[in-house]
Write a structure and sequence with these properties.
Blueprint (H helix, E strand, L loop, with lengths): L1 E8 L2 E6 L2 E7 L10 H10 L4 E6 H6 L4 H10 L3 E5 L5 H6 L4 E5 L15 E8 L2 E2 L7 H8 L5 E8 L11 H10 L4 E5 L5 H10 L3 E4 L1 H4 L14
């Protein structure tokens, strides 16, 4: 299953600079002329997608998520929304009641966050095969800690070096993580170029695939058609 991505900052959709997830460029897309995240979400819905992944950069970087915008997408589209807004709290859980919380290793500093009061989507953020977190743990040591958690059933595996770069997925990393997390539903993001990449990921056991650049560059569409390479 393909899950399209919306990166938002200052109320607009942006796109990551190739290989630099903390730097963003003006949003451009062959499927949407607007940088309005709500308009993009409605186009995703019309294309037949059922879910969307939102990365709120103002939340992640400055603890100031655009809750109104995220709620608008959740309430006025039929898309299931999972969102990374940085650090979650009981307040944001209440205000974003139907949104799936994504808790990312990149922004948390304590394993206590894994004791969240409801089911979460855990995002394991990596660079060069290493865990990105303020917690000093090896990637596979961290996986040992979380593998038996009942609240964590879906896990996003992000290769941040490949976000925004159409260079192909990190299949080796995926295989290593899949082997150590049997029974978990793994969602992969980073480097997706086309449908062949998605097929390769599904064949090795990846449950869902996050797609941004390949979708907006016209390389891939939900119904299986490939766009031109404009």
């Amino acid at each position: 299953m393909i899950v399209p991505v919306i990166d938002i900052k200052d109320g607009k959709a942006v796109r990551p600079r190739p290989g630099k997830r903390d730097e963003y460029e003006e949003f451009e897309s062959v499927i949407c002329k607007s940088s309005d995240p709500f308009e993009i979400a409605t186009i995703y819905e019309r294309l037949g997608f059922r879910e969307v992944y939102i990365a709120d950069l103002d939340g992640i970087l400055y603890s100031n998520p655009d809750r109104e915008l995220i709620n608008r997408i959740d309430r006025f589209t039929r898309l299931s929304v999972m969102a990374d807004i940085g650090l979650w709290s009981s307040e944001t859980l209440f205000l974003l009641d139907k949104v799936k919380p994504v808790i990312a290793t990149e922004t948390f500093s304590s394993l206590n966050l894994l004791e969240f009061p409801r089911e979460i989507v855990l995002s394991i953020d990596t660079r060069k095969g290493k865990l990105i977190s303020e917690i000093s743990l090896d990637l596979f040591d961290f996986i040992e800690i979380i593998k038996d958690s009942k609240r964590i059933t879906e896990i996003i595996l992000l290769d941040l070096d490949r976000v925004g770069i159409l260079k192909g997925p990190n299949l080796n990393l995926c295989k290593q993580v899949l082997e150590r997390l049997p029974g978990k539903r793994i969602i992969y993001g980073g480097g997706i170029r086309d449908l062949e990449d998605i097929d390769s990921l599904h064949r090795i056991g990846i449950y869902k695939v996050l797609v941004g650049s390949a979708l907006h560059s016209g390389r891939i569409f939900k119904d299986g058609r490939k766009g031109d390479h404009r």
